[in-house]
Amino acid sequence: MFIRVLDCISTDHNPTLVILAIVVALSSGFALFTILDHARARSGRMKIVWASVAALAAGGGIWSTHFIAMLGFQPAAFVSYDVGLTAVSAFFAIAFAATAMPLLLSPGLVNALAGGLLLSAAIGIMHFIGMRALLFAGTFEWHLPLVALSLGAGSSLVIAATFAGRRRASVGSRLAAGALFGAAICILHFTAMSAALFRTDPSLQVADGNLSEFLLGLSVAVVTTLIAIFSLVTVMFDRRAHDASVDAQQMRCILKAAQIGILVCQDDEVITANTAFERLVGCEGSSIEGRAVADFFDLPAGADRHAPRLFETEGQLKTANGVRVDVALNTTPILSGGTLRHLVEVRDIGEHKRARDRWHYLANHDELTGLPNRRLLHAELRKGALSHQEFGLLWIDLDRFKEVNDTHGHAIGDALLHAVAQRFRSVLDKRHLLARVGGDEFVVLFKHSSGQSDPAFAAESLLHAMTDPIVVDGQVLEVGISIGLARYPHDAKSADALMRRADLALYEAKKTGRSRYAAAS
């Protein structure tokens, strides 16, 4: 039998067209399993579309292989082809292939087996209808064992191709499956051709089938070329689109899962926002997209309000209910689909900023009285000295404070210090700095020295304010104050020197009777 098949191919066919038929069969097989891999990654309507493309690739490949081989067939008599049966053969090839595609795409092994059998039926039915389309001066009979062998071999190879193509989505699997499918078409065709016994009859005339070998060849070439180009080029472009869609979906999932607010902007327009940003601003994504970035933020004066330049900026987010949220903004350029966009990270720093402000306050203020401490006083003195403006300094010490602590305890002493600070505040201009710099020592920094802000006048006011006793927890406490006064730059040329001159003036006031003030001399 095998010798008969080989003899049929070598003696009754044009070798060039035989090779071309084999190439078309292998190419259609590779296209079929490439498209099937592509269709498995789709869902819904797109899966149906790609299953239809796969059916066209398979049916068209089967039909083209058969008729290319038929064009290479060289019988002794003149042949023609019936147009109707030729078209019917193409219809059945595509129809059976289309019926097989949903089964081939199914994950079940039984369905895959059924799909392989339907696909092999597409090859067999197409071949025998195509043979009926052959018109020549004579008749032919079939050698049934070879017919059975052709159908069995073709079916076995198609089923093997089906399972090879399901192993994994790789080029190697597609090549193996395509080779097996192409082999199934070719072996079924040439084995079945060797089973056909042609008997010429000179008394018969060839019916005009209206389809010459030239027109058939042209039709086959056009169909084959269109199927190959349409199948493979469309897969290439759709795969790129699918990959881009997958990347975009992954990006959306990442943005959605992020715990910080994120905006994706093009120029100054918001393209999309993640769930965290929607929660921050109190709006849904549909009311955010398309708006200007500046609509959502209050930024410091001088800050660039364009999205591409919001690098390491702090500002306030304007929420839907009118609340301002302290946020930190940071922008990163990203390339999306060939377009430059910017990813703006929006972090709520309200708690951080409050903690930072609290730390700064504690670092610069006295915990007991709430007044600025020595650290803040030094900073303000240096600032005043650098500005080269005149200012005055009062160094204040409580008289008889130690006696209060010894007699009434530290709790009463602390309450007394707090009450003294409140009395000082009631006398002094709020523009000037009142600080506590030690246990019972206070300092007043006067940034202007004219009118009511004159240090000497303020010293007299403070002394007068302390003439009345202070009542703490029912205890009447009589304390006074001594004050040392120094002016910059009249009494000293630096901040440190000015503090020393004021301290010496305080010592002079205590030495000469207390409850008075003394100016540096």
Please provide a written account of the structure:
The protein starts with a helix and ends with a strand. The protein folds into three domains: 244 residues, no CATH class; 94 residues, 2-Layer Sandwich (Beta-Lactamase); 155 residues, 2-Layer Sandwich (Alpha-Beta Plaits), CATH 3.30.70. α3 runs antiparallel to α8. With 521 residues, the protein is an alpha+beta fold. The chain contains 15 helices and 17 strands. Helices cover 56% and strands 18% of the residues.
Name the features:
Alpha-Beta Plaits; about 525 residues; rod-shaped; Beta-Lactamase; five-stranded mixed beta sheet; six-stranded antiparallel beta sheet; 3 domains; 15 helices
Sequence-ordered SSE layout with sheet pairings:
Elements: H1 2-12, H2 15-40, H3 44-71, E1 79-81, H4 83-105, H5 109-132, E2 134-136, E3 138-142, H6 144-165, H7 171-194, E4 196-200, H8 213-257, E5 261-266, E6 269-273, H9 275-281, E7 297-298, E8 313-318, E9 324-336, E10 339-348, H10 350-364, H11 374-387, E11 391-399, H12 401-408, H13 410-427, E12 433-436, E13 441-446, H14 455-465, E14 470-472, E15 475-477, E16 480-488, H15 495-511, E17 517-519
Parallel strand pairs: 16-17
Antiparallel strand pairs: 1-2, 3-4, 5-6, 5-10, 7-8, 8-9, 9-10, 11-13, 11-16, 12-13, 14-15
Helix pairs in contact: 1-7, 2-3, 2-7, 2-8, 3-4, 3-5, 3-7, 3-8, 4-5, 5-6, 5-7, 6-7, 12-13
